[in-house]
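[job 4471] stage=fold_predict status=RUNNING
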Amino acid sequence: MPEIDQAADENTALFGKYELGRVLGCGAFAKVHYARNVQTGQSVAVKIINKKKLNGSGLAGNVKREISIMSRLHHPNIVRLHEVLATKTKIYFVMDIIRGGELFGKISKGRFSEDLSRKYFHQLISAVGYCHSRGVFHRDLKPENLLLDENGDLRVTDFGLSALRDQIRPDGLLHTLCGTPAYVAPEILSKKGYDGAKVDVWSCGVVLFVLVAGYLPFNDPNLMVMYKKIYKGEFRCPRWTSPELRRFLGRLLDTNPETRITVDDMIRDPWFRKEYKEIKFNEEDYASGSGIGIGSKEDRVMNLNAFDIISFSSGLDLSGLFGEAGKGDRLVTRKSPELVLETAEEAGGAAEMEVRWKKECGVELEGLNGRFRFEVEVHRLSADLTVVEVRRRGGDAVAFRSVWEERLKPLLLGGATTSSDSKVAQEQT
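[job 4471] inference complete, writing structure tokens
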């Protein structure tokens, strides 16, 4: 079967850019197609999420979080997200296409040697350690979510259940119960909270055991019996494993998260150190293209990624899926973000308002005696375009309009188009 199937249901060039081909996989809320960039000829995978199915599932937040997470991960052993597109009914993740298939498919044909298992484990730990350094915890590491590329290298995928550091509660732990039963750490079963990095290490230990043994360390047809084995750490290494590997697996599958080996400590373990070479890379080489940008932390002006651009377009509005951004006004102007903020500051001063610079990308203006207050935020849409968002934060609506509508907005309208004209945002995607 050709990879580009002209009979495919949705085989029109998405946004004039991607030609869809055969289906690579299906799930409850999404399916993955092979696709080709008609402009460059590059092969990619396109994950298509049905918004209608997603709406009633309570998983909309997971999708937004997955976009946020994948856009910040740039590592040779992690599947790269190129960009996110959307229509009124669907969301499209454009990602690397990984032709070698799932690691699960390979291991189901027979166990691996210790040397080959070690190679894959080195790559897995490099990716997982990188995620943790970026405040990302995968929480569903298993062979089905580990792919092999055409060079035989491992690539981590499916960050749909991942957590970010800002989800940690005041007790310093995560509390959401998630993961695949045979791979979950015992502390998740205790429902008392857990360290995201330590549960990822446990799952990596289960993955390593599966690679060298060809079967799961904790398994039983009765789910509760299997959970009891996990909670007690009851497993046996097969006779063909080396003493060094058995000791290493014991440190990975330590039921006490406080004494379980860490990613940093692995480098000093004798089994792990054999043939170990640190994976060195330049993040920019693995950063996404035009779709998901990397903004400098030093920039006051926030650069928009593709998902933000989509949400700014009325024709491709995702606010109904992910929540309203707040009441206010929005326009696109050809003035630079810096000039917009200077103009807002000058207009506020002329109206005898108190002006406060926000930490990242805007200013807050407050009328005399607190009569009204509004915020102006700017986002760089492209080299030539800036999105300006204005939100009234209470007070006299008439006074707000007199400053925004009559003073500031006219100064910005030169070369601008309001957000009701979605063409600008669509062209950028």
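[job 4471] summary: The radius of gyration is 25 Å.
[job 4471] exit 0
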